[in-house]
Amino acid sequence: MGTALSVPAQTQSARVRAQGSGHTIQTAITIISIVLVGIALIPALVQMFLDKPLYYPDARFTIQNIVALVSDREVTATFGATFLFCSIVVLVSMALGTSSAILIGRTDLPGRSAFLAILLWPLFLSPQVIGFGAILAYGPAGLLTIWFSDATGLTEPWNLYSVPGMAVVAGIAATPVTTLYCLTAAIQQDPNQEAAARIAGAGSLRILFRIILPIMRPALIFAFIMNIVNALETLAIPLIIGGPVGIKLLTTLIYDKSFESAGLPQYGLVSALAFALMAIVGVLFFLQRLALRQSHRFVSVGAKSIQPKMLALGSWKWPAFLLMAVYVVFGVVVLVGAVFARSLTFILSPDVSFFDAVTLQHYSDVLSVEVYRRSILNTLLLAVVGGALGTAFVAAVAMVAQRSNYRYRRVLDAVAQLPRVLPGLVVGLGVFYASMFVPGIDLLRNTIWLVLIAYLIRFLSSGYGIVSPALLQITGDFDRAAKSVGAGWTTTMTRIVLPLSKQALLSCFVLLMILIIKEYSSAVFLMAPGSEVIGSTMLSLWTQGLAGPVAALAVMQIVLTSILTSIVTRILGVKLHG
């Protein structure tokens, strides 16, 4: 009897040991995650309450930096300009993105696939490239501005150097995100409701406004909030377009106060502004969660053996095609084309023949000047290494948070999503401070590895948003079956769960590579000889008036993104959309 009872006891003990075998790893992953996010937050938080830079031994406690948020006229003026900027960006992006998604995904518009491919270009381009292209094409001396003025006689047909002007450009840069969110929601709908409406005699417009758009409401809310967040965080477009004429938004004020040429940089005010920005973003994400709590009311789940029927545009087919073509050509192709053209000429002007101005000197400089070449190599290295390390770290975090019984898994889940509310400037500022005080990290100062840490913090939530849902879709029966034969948590994750999550992990890798190549704001505070990246180098060159090398670097950034994404998508079979 005693022997019979001891066998189950021993088996149960073995299973408990197997189940708990991953506790040390889970704890380590949790601690590393908290430390990384803490690096971005704590130093900047402390600086907000000091009257001098954090590294000054005589710095004293003060709340003046917080008071300045509501008392300083320069600061309060930026809130008004930022509100106007964000409003226009959201209006442009939502209007263009939603319309494009419906026309491409749910109508019989001619050339839908070609339009979608071109519409997504800005998704893979840094906002800096879009901004440079806008200045070259639509600035006061831009090609299209001069051509339009000559044709119509208008001396100033539009004003790019204004809050509405740069907001339209930023809205165009943000449109692909709205298009993707809405396109997926428009396509993946139960066709039975539309079929019933057609049987009842409803036409295309009635189906659109009474069925398709209401079901798309969660995607529209998500896109709306994301557009506001992106508008609040954007730095490059307001800096290169609004900076020369004195227009300041919240992000550009943070940038200016950090690099003041006269006097000491106001790091305390910078930290207060950064946390104000983070608080606004945090409130927006909270409102998004509230708005989407009842999102299931707008989703129909049914048999999808047939594809939703395309809405017939009828007599509006070719006018819609023309409007879409105008947007694609003048809102995307012209901007990218202007950058390519400027990279191949010493001057870009209607008064000078393109072929007379052709030169390869800018590319020669980019490939021969040490700083330019190093920024390209650093960006390539960070994209590949950062994408791989980031994916591995995201996978580890997601497995602990979603596929374990670890006591603090909910805390880890919250920590992993916290960087969503951290703008790139806040992350860069926090890592900058940490490099001066945190033992170990100070050894990485002025190296690309410090930039890599900032990137990993910045994009933790982005990767987590891809991998976490994929892990939740894998049944827990695999975990239970593995435990029944004595497999520990680590073995179960590495031998079963991770292989089943291959597609999500590859998608995460591609996304992180693209985001790292595009990123610039996190590296602004970390720029140093030897740690240059393409984004920060372009900003520096533009402020010096070197448009040619900037355009060549922008083209190199486009080419680098295209090559890496093409290789990965073709070899690994990852889909970039759909």
From TrEMBL:
GO cellular-component term (any): plasma membrane
A Pfam family hit: BPD_transp_1
Keywords: Cell inner membrane, Cell membrane, Membrane, Transmembrane, Transmembrane helix, Transport
Source organism superkingdom: Bacteria
Segments forming domain ABC transmembrane type-1: 79-288, 376-568
Membrane-related topology note: Multi-pass membrane protein
Subcellular location: Cell inner membrane; Cell membrane
GO biological process: transmembrane transport
Transmembrane segments: 27-50, 79-104, 116-138, 158-186, 207-229, 267-287, 318-341, 380-401, 421-441, 448-467, 496-517, 550-572
InterPro entries listed in its UniProt record: MetI-like, MetI-like_sf
Annotated family: Belongs to the binding-protein-dependent transport system permease family.
Protein name listed in UniProt: Iron(III) transport system permease protein
